[in-house]
Amino acid sequence: MNPTIALEEIYAPIESAIQAIPDVTLGILATPNPLAQEVIQYFFSEQGKLLRPALTLFGAEIVRQNKGPGAVSPDKSNLMRLAAAFEIFHAATLVHDDIVDSAYLRRNLPTVNVRWGPQIAVLVGDYLHVRAVEAFFETKSEKIAARFMETAGAVCDGEIRELREKYNLNLTQADYFDILGKKTASLLSCCIEAGAILAEGSPEEAGALGRYGRYFGLAFQIVDDCLDFTGEEHEFGKTLGADYTAGVLTLPLIRLLEIARPRDRETVIAAFKSNKELSKFQMILELIREYQTVPYALAQARAFSAKARAELSLFSDSPAKRSLDRLLDYVLERNR
Amino acid sequence: MNPTIALEEIYAPIESAIQAIPDVTLGILATPNPLAQEVIQYFFSEQGKLLRPALTLFGAEIVRQNKGPGAVSPDKSNLMRLAAAFEIFHAATLVHDDIVDSAYLRRNLPTVNVRWGPQIAVLVGDYLHVRAVEAFFETKSEKIAARFMETAGAVCDGEIRELREKYNLNLTQADYFDILGKKTASLLSCCIEAGAILAEGSPEEAGALGRYGRYFGLAFQIVDDCLDFTGEEHEFGKTLGADYTAGVLTLPLIRLLEIARPRDRETVIAAFKSNKELSKFQMILELIREYQTVPYALAQARAFSAKARAELSLFSDSPAKRSLDRLLDYVLERNR
Prior knowledge:
The structure is a homodimer. The first copy, chain A, is an all-alpha fold. Chain A has a single domain, classed as Orthogonal Bundle (Farnesyl Diphosphate Synthase), CATH 1.10.600. In chain A, 75% of the residues lie in helices and 1% in strands. Chain A has 17 helices and two strands. Chain A has helices at residues 7-10, 15-29, 34-45, 51-66, 76-100, 112-116, 118-138, 142-164, 173-198, 203-230, 233-236, 242-246, 251-259, 262-273, 278-290, 293-311, 319-333; strands at 105-106, 109-110. In chain A, strand 1 (105-106) and strand 2 (109-110) form a beta hairpin. Chain A is globular. The mean pLDDT of chain A is 91. The interface between A and B is medium-sized, with 35 and 35 residues.
C-alpha cells in the first residue's frame, strides 16, 4: 500500500529549496579524494526522504510566514547550508550505524559497510561528520552551533545506550523512550528549531517548534521500529527484522514481553536469544500479531503526533503550518 | 634502550599545566552514560605522550615569552580546554584507527576495538569527536575553530588516502609524504598554531609555529613508521609490524622497493602479498637491515627536524623555545 499522502505535496511550500538540497549537499562534500568522492556519490545517489533538511526549511518558513507580510527571509544560502548540514550529519550517523547494526540494505542499496567494508565506512562517516560540523559553524550563529553540539552528543549517547541495552529483556518502555528521545528525536528537534533560530523566530516560536520536532521524532521512530516487523522490504528500503536480529528491543517487542502469557513469554525469550534464525523471526511476528502490539505501539505514535500538532497552535495559518500538520499524518501512514 | 632525553624534562616549562591535562580531559568527557564512561576511563587510564596538548601549551608559552616582560597570558582555563580538546580529538582518531587497522595493542592495553568490539569503538570515537569539537567551539575563537575544522578534514582525507593505497606497491615517496602531511603533520601543526593564536601571537609567529608543527609531525611519523619495524613491543606500546600486516607501505619499505635488486624486490612483493605470516615479516626485516632503509628514513626525519628547528629562529631565547628545540631531538631518539 502506498501512503495516501505524498511527501512531494507536503513539501510544496519549500519545493524549490528542497529540490536543491542534493546539489548543495554534494557541493559541501566535494573532495579531491577519489575514494571518498566515490563513496559519497554512491551513498547520495539514492535520496532518502530529506526529512531533516525539510524540517529546517519549514522551521524557517513557518516563522517567516508567522511574522506576516514584509517579513525578511533569512539569508538563502546560509539556510540551505544549514539544511544540508543536517542531512550530512544524518548521513554520517547512518554510515556508522550500518557498521554498528551490520545492516545490509540502506535506501535499497548495499550499505557502505557491505560494499567497502567497515574501515572505509568508519572514515567516510568521520569525513561526513567533519564537513557537517564545519557547515554548522559557517552559519556564524553561536546559538545554532551550540544547539547542534548538544544534539550530536545526545545522538551518540542514545546510540551507545541502545547498544548497551541489546538483548536486555528487561528493557522498560521508559528506557526505550529515553533512547529514542536521544538517538532520533533530539536531531529532528534540532533541525526545525535551528531553522527557526536562523529565521530569527522568537524564543517561544523556536521552543514550540523544537518540541514539535521532538514529538514528531518520537512518533517517527516508533513507526520506523514497527516497520522493522511489518514493512515490505523493497518499499522500506532496509533489511526487515534488522533490529530484532541485532538484539535491539523496540516497542512492539517490549510490549509483547509485558503482556504475553508466561508460556508465550518464554517462547519469545528463547527465540530472541537464538535470534539468527529466520524461522524464529516468523514465530515472533505471529506473537506480535496475536497480541496486537504493533497497533499498541502505533497508538503511542499517534499520541506523540497529537502533542506535536498542539505545538503548532502558536502559529497563524500558512502553507508551511499546513505542511507541518500534514507531515504528522504522513509519518503515521508511511511504509518506508 | 631508553631515550637519553626524558619528555618530563622537556615539558618542565609547562609542567603544572600538562599535569592537569588528564583531569581536564576527563572533565570535558564526563557523561552519565555508564558504558561510555567505562570505555573513556579505560582508554585514558594509560596516558600517551600528551604531545598534542604539550604543543598547544608551548605554542602559547613561546609567544608569551617572546613578547617579553609584562605580556598578558591567555585565559588559563580556555588554554587548558583547547589543549585537552586536541588530546580528545586525537583519541577519537586513535579509537577509530584501531578499528581500521585491526590493531591489538594501544598504550600497552588491548584496543577499544578488541576489548569492546567495533560497534562500541565506532560510537565512542564519535562521542570523543563531538566533545572535542564542542571544546574547540567554546574557545570562542573563530580562527581556531576554522583552523581545526580544516585540519580535521585533512586528517580524514589522509586516512582515507592511506587506506586506499594499501597494498599499492607503486606508492611513491611523494604519495607517502602527502599522506603523512595530512594524517599526522596537519594536526600537530594545528595544535601549536592554535596555542599561538590563543596567546595572540602575530601572524608571523603563528605561521612559523604552524610550520614547525608540520615539519615536527613529518619527522615524528617517519620515526613512528620506522619503530613499526625496529621497535621493542613493550616499549613501543603498540603491536609491531602493524602497518606491514595491514598492507600499509611506509618509508623503509618504499625505499626498499626502490633500491632492492630485482630478485630481492620480487621476494618483498611476494612476501607483502601474503603478509599474514610472521616468517615473512622476519624476511622483510632482514632485507630492510641489509639495504639500510631505516637509517635512510631516519635521515629524512632528521632533515625535517632541522627545518622545524629553523622556524624557531623567529623567537628570542626562552625556556619554551629551548624545549621546542629539544623536542626535535627527542622525536629522533624516541623508542615509543
